[in-house]
Write a structure and sequence with these properties.
about 240 residues, alpha/beta, five-stranded mixed β-barrel
């Protein structure tokens, strides 16, 4: 491993993570999740520009976030790992590239096409992918809870305002089903640091129409997002 100048570490007085972490990405979820953590008497810990709550369970479950974009998300993940995290469930939103994936569907990315710049700093022999056993366990759990779940490859980009129609169509033809801003980087860091990571995403917009179709500002989407987050928190309590 290269002799880096700054290494993530646990400092005196910081949290010691002893259970799985549910890492939410989007600031749009933040106020509702923080309010729910307070209702559950979650203990708040310092996590620089983000939030970290310890939720009483056996083992304890930790909620962390938000952190939008690959660089910010990786900074948070690096710190969580330094605090002791071994198992991470990422909860985010994604855009659908193919008509079979609809707004408010739940999508579990399997592997990623990376067009973000953070992953290149963590050299790996294999392309970024979710931890397979955890992803399969998560898919089974969500099916049992009544969720319709789809799985497949995702495109991760640093530039949401440069998602061209040509790329959407081409990647869709290649079987890439969705787009986000963090997954490939998070998978890369998790593999590099030898921790387990899988993700569940709620489809927030459809990119395959003649015009962009977002739904993430609707009340129905916000309600579904919080319900999905809490279902993932229950799953985290039972990671094996």
């Amino acid at each position: 491993m290269p002799d880096t100048l700054i290494n993530p570490s646990r400092q005196k007085g910081e949290a010691h993570i002893t259970g799985p972490v549910l890492f939410f990405i989007n600031p749009g979820d933040s106020s509702h999740i923080c309010n729910e953590a307070r209702k559950l008497n979650g203990k708040k810990h310092f996590l620089f520009h983000s939030n970290l709550f310890e939720i009483s369970a056996r083992p304890p479950v930790f909620w962390a976030g938000p952190a939008l974009g690959a660089p910010a998300a990786v900074m948070v993940l690096e710190k969580l790992i330094a605090l002791g995290c071994k198992d991470v469930i990422v909860y985010g939103w994604c855009g659908a590239l193919v008509p079979g994936l609809k707004a408010c569907d739940v999508f579990l990315p399997t592997r990623a096409l990376s067009e973000e710049g953070t992953s290149d700093h963590y050299p790996l022999a294999k392309p970024p992918a979710a931890h397979e056993a955890m992803r399969l366990q998560l898919a089974c759990y969500l099916h049992q809870q009544g969720y319709t779940v789809q799985e497949g490859p995702i495109w991760t980009t640093d530039a949401p305002y440069r998602e061209t129609r040509q790329k959407v169509q081409e990647y869709g033809r290649q079987g890439i089903m969705a787009v986000d801003m963090e997954f490939s980087a998070l998978c890369t860091v998790a593999a590099y640091r030898s921790v387990n990571l899988a993700a569940a995403m709620l489809v927030s917009d459809e990119l395959y129409h003649p015009t962009w179709q977002p739904v993430y500002m609707s009340k129905a989407f916000k309600k579904k997002s919080m319900e999905t987050f809490l279902a993932l928190s229950r799953f985290a309590c039972n990671i094996t």
